[in-house]
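@channel sequence for tomorrow's demo:
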Amino acid sequence: MTEAISDGKTVKSPSPAPVHVDAETLPAPAVEVRSRGGGVDDIVIGAGVVSTGHFVTGGLICVDGTLRDSVVRADTISISHGAELHGRAQARHVEIFGRLDGEVVATEQIVLRASAIVTGKISSPCMVMHRGATVTGEVDTTVPEGKLPTAAQVLSSD
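structure tokens (generated this afternoon):
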């Protein structure tokens, strides 16, 4: 029997029956971490999940839900169609299908797919923008000083 006070009166109700929880029937976690081995983990922010915080890994971060006021660092970051990242991100490679509001720095490449909507600042030495993607803000494709390839490196890559 449980008691609750409502409008100054004590109301009694029967206690709920105990609930057995089977670990196999629990829903999947909203934020999933997958190990690649070698100490490198992937992080998946599930569809429909809204979260905040710092997410750091040497692997992949896949945003299928919404990250607000977040800082994200990984080797690769993917923002799925319908997903949102509000905050700052840094990675070697970034691919955006969804919405980005904030700042992203990629050391190698940023790919903006046709459904990408970017508001803020994006920076990478290589940028790929598909027809239909929108950017409102600042785009920086300059290569940091001392990182420019030599003529021999450019010619040898052909």
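heads up for whoever presents: The longest strand covers residues 66-79.
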